[in-house]
Design goal:
Keywords: FAD, Flavoprotein, Magnesium, Metal-binding, Transferase
Helix content: 25-40%
Shape: globular
EC number: 2.7.1.180
Structural class: alpha+beta
Family: Belongs to the ApbE family.
Order of helices and strands: EEHHEHHHEEHEEEEEEEEHEEEE
Strand order of the largest sheet: 1-2-6-7-10-13-14-15-17
Oligomer: single chain
Number of strands: 17
CATH topology of one domain: T-fold
Distance between the termini: 37 Å
CATH class of one domain: Mainly Alpha
Largest sheet: 9 strands, mixed
Strand content: 25-35%
Organism: Erwinia typographi
Catalytic activity: L-threonyl-[protein] + FAD = FMN-L-threonyl-[protein] + AMP + H(+)
CATH architecture of one domain: Orthogonal Bundle
Bound molecules: flavin-adenine dinucleotide, magnesium ion
Length: 321
């Protein structure tokens, strides 16, 4: 029996994304509980429906603080902290621009410059006031909107890992559409690790640049090829530059972060994407617990230190720098 025959895969569509759970035992009930957990988080955190804890904060922008649950408050505090780091292009108050561009959703278009500039005035993370005495969140200006799209999948992937661990599961993989978290390794595979494909940008769904092998680590990828639209020969992807209000434009096609926690991976993919290769590598040099693989437009695959993973290059169009 090949190792793959022993892996049971369960799939769902949640968080607007294809969700994949791999287990080593056939356990439909456990899979259903995992999907329920993800669904519960989606209901709290979504900005794609009229009601959620996050939407209640957005609806009260410029008017009043809103008390939220402890976990949501903590997640928002993490998002705010990442957003106010000096030079950070991670910005969780990017909501008004995300809503206006609608990249990856029906009805996307390129907004007029004046409109972008007006919306940029609503994206200052310092204008989010957190009060930890009553766990309230206040958006100071009317029209402000928080968007946890760049951090929430990582947070949820960690919750799934913790839940599975509590249930006594030793080996599992959860993929929330670009956010992978693992428990153990693929127990009876030759390598004893999970192999996670690094997708080839703008190619078929099964075409890979290479494979990243990890045990009990998170692997998160952010790329320009995930959600985008094209207009007049130009591509507009979903990671926005909070300085200009336009999609972030640099030498990168994707950034993958390997770390213990997926929330960290999710924050760092977006942060590092904004930094580019050179600054990103320098930034990581002081953070050995976070490792990354950058893929550039000119076909280079550049990794920082690689203590927590191994990488196997498969595609000849790319070369390891
Ligand atoms: P990342 O690179 O980690 O983040 C990019 C996303 O973060 C963007 O899509 C945007 O939302 C936001 N963002 C853009 N620029 C910045 C920036 N500079 N700083 C910080 N954040 C930025 N998709 C659907 O199609 N339909 C849904 O109903 C839907 N519901 C969702 C509900 C929840 C709770 C979550 C977490 C996601 C949902 N999504 C949905 C997907 C969502 O719209 C984003 O596309 C997704 O979260 C992007 O994740 P990523 O890891 O690919 O990208
Ligand atoms: Mg992210
Ligand atoms: Mg992400």
């Amino acid at each position: 029996m090949s190792p793959d025959d022993r892996v049971y895969a369960y799939s769902a569509v949640l968080l607007g994304s294809p969700i994949l759970l791999k287990l080593f035992d056939h356990n439909q009930t456990l899979a259903a509980r995992v999907f329920r957990l993800i669904k519960q988080q989606e209901i709290l955190l979504t900005v794609n429906r009229p009601h959620s804890e996050v939407m209640s904060i957005n609806h009260a922008a410029g008017e009043s603080p809103v008390v939220v649950s402890q976990p949501v408050f903590e997640l928002i505090a993490r998002a705010r902290a990442a957003s106010v780091l000096p030079g950070s292009l991670f910005n969780f108050t990017i909501g008004p621009l995300v809503k206006r561009w609608k990249i990856g959703f029906q009805g996307n278009s390129v907004p007029p410059l004046a409109e972008i500039q007006a919306l940029l005035a609503l994206t200052n993370p310092h204008h989010v006031i957190l009060n930890d005495r009553d766990r309230s969140v206040f958006l100071q200006k009317s029209g402000m909107e928080i968007d946890l799209g760049a951090i929430a999948k990582g947070y949820i992937a960690d919750l799934v890992r913790d839940f599975l661990r509590q249930e006594g599961v030793e080996d599992a993989l959860i993929n929330l559409g670009g956010n992978v978290q693992t428990l153990g390794g693929a127990a009876d595979s030759e390598s004893g690790s999970w192999g996670i494909g690094l997708k080839k940008p703008f190619a078929g769904p099964d075409e890979l640049i290479g494979v990243i092998n990890v045990r009990g680590k998170s692997v998160v990828t952010s790329g320009v090829y995930e959600r985008y639209f094209e207009l007049a020969g130009k591509r507009y992807h979903h990671i926005l530059d909070p300085r200009s209000g336009y999609p972030l434009d640099n030498e990168l096609l994707s950034v993958t972060v390997i770390s213990a926690d997926s929330i960290e991976g999710d924050i760092y993919t977006t942060l590092l994407y904004g930094m580019g290769v050179e600054k990103g590598l320098a930034y990581l040099a002081a953070r050995p617990e976070i490792e990354a693989i950058f893929v550039t437009r000119d076909g280079q695959v550049i990794s920082s230190s690689a203590r927590q993973f191994t990488f196997t290059l498969l595609d000849e169009d790319f070369h390891q720098a």
